[in-house]
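hey can u check if this looks right to u? its 66 residues, i copy pasted from the old doc so theres a chance i mangled smth
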Amino acid sequence: MSNQAERAEPGDIEKLNEEKIEKVLQRFMGYPEIFMNCVHPGFVKTNINWNTGVMSTEEGLRGQSC
């Protein structure tokens, strides 16, 4: 798989839409050895947000249970 098209397509913000994102995702889905994982723990107290978060870093590390 060439990197160039995958980098260029999402980078064109003016023309980016849900359909284009879906196309890029479908191309990646053709490679089952690639794994994508994402966890959004919530608003965690860190230096980036001046420790104004609602949970500790330890709680954020555990992630949210679904």
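The two ends are 34 Å apart (CA to CA).
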